[in-house]
Amino acid sequence: MATVQSETRDVQQFIGGEWVAASSGATFDDLDPFTGEVVARVPAGTREDAHLAVEAAAAAFPAWSQTPPAERQRIFLKAADLLEARAEDVASWLIRETGSAFGFSMFQLHFVPGLFRQAAALAYAPLGEVIPSDTGAFSMGLRRPVGVVGAIAPWNAALILSARSIAAPLALGNTVVLKPSELSPYAGGLLWGEIFAEAGLPAGVLNVVTHAPGEAAGIGDELVENPHVRRLNFTGSTATGRKLAEAAGRNLKRIVLELGGYNPLIVLADADVEYAVNASAFGAFMHQGQICMSARKIIVERPVADEFIAKLVAKTKGLKTGNPSEHDTVIGPLINSSALDMVRSRVEEAVAKGATLLAGGESVGSCFQATLLADVPEDSDFARYETFGPVAAIEVVDSADEAVVRANATSYGLASGIITTNAEQGLALAQRIEAGIVHVNDQPVGDEPQMPFGGVKDSGFGRFGGQAVVGEFTEVHWITVQSGSHPFPF
Ligand code: NAD
Known about the structure:
Shape: globular
Bound molecules: nicotinamide-adenine-dinucleotide
Strand order of the largest sheet: 15-18-19-14-13-20-21
Largest sheet: 7 strands, mixed
Number of strands: 23
């Protein structure tokens, strides 16, 4: 059993290096999804607070963008150490604020120090180029930070996804306004104010604005429309991302969009069935299926289908559901009652239209059992949209080619997996999958800070991680120096 704090904390927004209430003075209750208890009272910020945060970030930009890379590196290395030193407390917040089971909380606490240490290296990553010129000029392409970056993060892997939204932008010399989800304002936002202030980040370089449920739009509008904000990044649902992309387009702002997924996991006839079963259960049910990369559709070749399905059903029925602070719990609560209602209704509708329920299908308090469906009709909402919960659908196919067709039969394109013992065949098929990420002989859920993470189709565009992130949050500046004078035509 993890040691979980039980007190209700009053927290403040972080703007211009100060801890402040909302300009309206209003607060809202941040609830524990498992117990319903109030975890924190949080400022209900508005567009006005976002405006103040952008002004603070804009004021801090000139000095921060000129800070030597060694200083930015030092701050990120220190932040990684500070987070590790607070791991127990932060795990407790993740459990209480987001219902993240102990195992997934510890995974996040392992990932983010690594992310910050990678970001420390990013301070030196913007390499320019010297370009041969036909005019005799000395010609350069320099990479420079863009200005203020607006970052909007979700609740589901609150620690990782909020850290990812700020790490590269800050390390590359930008200043940031972070808007965490209303469902994870502390572990997905205000925590970073505490950590980075202690690490020595100057005032105004990072700002965190919080808001009550249903009041994101005003803050989002300020981030999109304020001319000081030069880039945006958004991680969340495709529906919200689409709205932000439209607004960003009107304002001619680039945006990195990390959106939803409907992630296929293919199990080929040559797979090691035990391994395929363990991989599928992990891919589908880690964090009760509330991961953008969760395996939602498991496509299995007929020769191994009966054995695979029987073993996966048995494993699924044995997963412990309940209190996320107990170390052996796999399926904790869904984030709130609307999420629970949505998952239940998607399963009920699919079954009513002819799907077969192989395991689960019931809610248990604030949790929903790990659930497997088969024969899900194409016209059901489960087949058409991402269902963010512990539910996966199994499809049986007659060939690897058919598996690829079924894997691509979705408007999404984030992550995918192909379980096979034949790496050559896996690699050939991987290149035919319409997704930003394909793991051969593995399931879809996985990330490392240095990898080019991102999707295609309705899963978004742009990449966090890898070299790609340098291009997302810097601008190329072409500068020439003419030596002496050269003739002009008039
Ligand atoms: P969501 O779209 O409801 O919310 C995401 C963020 O957008 C939150 O901070 C929310 O407050 C904010 N928001 C909502 N309306 C807004 C508006 N009008 N203007 C500005 N901001 C607004 O998504 P969620 O429920 O928090 O997260 C789950 C979704 O995120 C799933 O679809 C999941 O697949 C996706 N996701 C994607 C990735 C990825 O890397 N591709 C990672 C995690 C989650």
